[in-house]
């Protein structure tokens, strides 16, 4: 197993982290014996970073991980878990959730603690204003939390605002070959790295979308280089080729995936892609882009929008729906465009001022295309559903 050193605290972290949100299931719950055996196998093969969250598997992921780490395993690994901001209205809420997490994980400390799924700076400011960061710093001083970080799904601009707003110990972003210019983006990854902040990568396979339902030409292109290398292996190697990535999280669901990921993580080398391999990706991306609805490259020259629309984010969601046949695209659109955050950035906020269009190097008719996004990704139920959810969650 390859390791990369955490530049903030000197810890050796396995480049493969075990994402604990997709354990094997049986009868509607986690298949515990299998999941525990997979965790033990991963540890035996050098995996030392386990990423869970309060909400994964309906709250059962943390308990399963705690159970699996009894008997001497706990000391061999780092546990990362997350505070769900949407369940935290007061500092007391956060304290109760944290106490439950320690109990579920059967541990006295959390190695890597994240504010889960921040989407904008306003979300961070809200948590800060109720004292969450101060409280976490207190926990860090007594060793109950070792590292404070955040996971992120939002725009490049919001990522920069958040990453610069606090002396983070680490951060976690969505990154894969189709998200090079989406969400935090490659330049966001490089920014965090340049600030000395370790980066954990999630969704290297976009939740399996870069493995399933790929266009035939993409599969053929991958095979033309190496008939044995699967699309999943290509995607993982692409992420690890970036030296700025400390840990890649893989939500492993079966024994074969564990074995395969360990094999790849044991021989991959950063910045080792050959010219030919880079050409394979160039072609794959070209095919993928050709099939996209809107030829947006995510460059963000059109930003910021005075009405708060995340223009590249809107187009990325629409493209995913068609290119990857992503059935959960609408849900992800709601999530990444901040439907439940303080500052939503969805397409229907566009006031049609036209300010963005002259800046677009792709000459995209942004106003017209945003209307397509509204029709395809919001539809008639978006406003009432989001309105009710915001009322329940008391989001202004
Ligand atoms: S046209 Fe719409 S998306 Fe473009 S800047 Fe104006 S409000 Fe924003
Ligand atoms: S300027 Fe054009 S290509 Fe760049 S992000 Fe905006 S819409 Fe996309």
Name the descriptors.
single chain; 396 residues; alpha/beta; TIM Barrel; 2 domains; 15 helices; 12 strands; 13% strand; globular; binds iron/sulfur cluster
Account of the protein in words:
It is a single chain. It is built from 15 helices and twelve strands. By secondary structure, it is of the alpha/beta class. Strands 3-6-7-8-9-10-11-12 form an eight-stranded parallel β-barrel, surrounded by six helices. A two-stranded antiparallel sheet has the order 1-2. A two-stranded antiparallel ribbon has the order 4-5. The model has no long low-confidence stretch (mean pLDDT 91). α2 links the parallel β6 and β7 (78-83). The chain has helices at residues 32-44, 60-68, 91-105, 121-129, 132-141, 156-163, 185-194, 216-225, 231-240, 255-267, 275-290, 311-323, 329-336, 366-378, 382-392; strands at 3-5, 12-14, 16-19, 25-26, 29-30, 49-51, 78-83, 110-118, 145-152, 170-174, 199-202, 247-250. The protein has two domains: 3-278, NADP-dependent oxidoreductase domain (TIM Barrel), CATH 3.20.20; 311-392, no CATH class. The radius of gyration is 21 Å and the shape is globular. The protein binds iron/sulfur cluster (SF4) (2 copies). One iron/sulfur cluster binds at residues 296-302, 311-312, 315, 359-360, 362, 364, 366. One iron/sulfur cluster (SF4) is lined by residues 305-307, 309, 311, 350-356, 366-367, 370.
């Amino acid at each position: 197993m390859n390791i990369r050193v955490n530049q903030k605290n000197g810890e050796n972290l396995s480049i493969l982290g075990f994402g604990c949100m997709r354990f094997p299931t049986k009868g509607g719950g986690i298949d515990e014996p299998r999941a525990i055996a997979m965790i033990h196998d991963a540890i035996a093969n050098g995996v030392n970073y386990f990423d869970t969250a309060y909400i994964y598997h309906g709250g059962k992921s943390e308990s399963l991980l705690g159970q699996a780490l009894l008997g001497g395993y706990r000391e061999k690994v780092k546990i990362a878990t997350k505070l769900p901001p949407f369940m935290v209205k007061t500092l007391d809420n956060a304290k109760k959730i944290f106490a439950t997490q320690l109990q579920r994980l059967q541990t006295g400390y959390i190695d890597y603690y994240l504010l889960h799924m921040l989407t904008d700076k306003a979300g961070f400011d809200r948590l800060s204003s109720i004292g969450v960061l101060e409280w976490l710093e207190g926990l860090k001083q007594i060793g109950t939390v070792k590292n404070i970080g955040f996971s992120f799904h939002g725009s490049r601009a919001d990522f920069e605002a958040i990453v610069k707003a606090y002396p983070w110990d680490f951060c976690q972003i969505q990154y894969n070959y189709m998200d090079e210019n989406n969400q935090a983006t490659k330049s966001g990854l490089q920014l965090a790295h340049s600030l000395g902040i370790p980066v954990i990568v999630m969704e290297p396979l976009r939740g399996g979308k870069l493995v399933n339902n790929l266009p035939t030409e993409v599969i053929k292109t991958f095979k033309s280089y190496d008939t044995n290398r699967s699309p999943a292996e290509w995607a993982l190697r692409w992420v690890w080729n970036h030296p700025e990535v400390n840990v890649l999280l893989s939500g492993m669901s079966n024994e074969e995936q564990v074995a395969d990921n360990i094999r790849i993580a044991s021989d991959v080398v950063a910045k080792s892609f050959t010219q030919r391999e880079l050409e394979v990706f160039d072609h794959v991306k070209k095919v993928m882009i050709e099939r996209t609805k809107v030829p947006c490259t995510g460059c963000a020259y059109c930003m910021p929008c005075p009405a708060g629309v995340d223009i590249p984010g809107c187009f990325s969601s629409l493209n995913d729906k068609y290119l990857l046949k992503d059935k959960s695209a609408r849900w992800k659109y709601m999530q990444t465009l901040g439907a439940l955050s303080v500052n939503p950035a969805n397409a229907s906020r566009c006031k049609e001022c036209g300010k963005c269009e002259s800046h677009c190097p792709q000459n995209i008719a942004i106003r017209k295309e945003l209307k397509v996004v509204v029709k395809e990704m919001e539809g008639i139920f978006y406003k009432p559903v989001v309105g009710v959810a915001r009322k329940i969650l008391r989001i202004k």
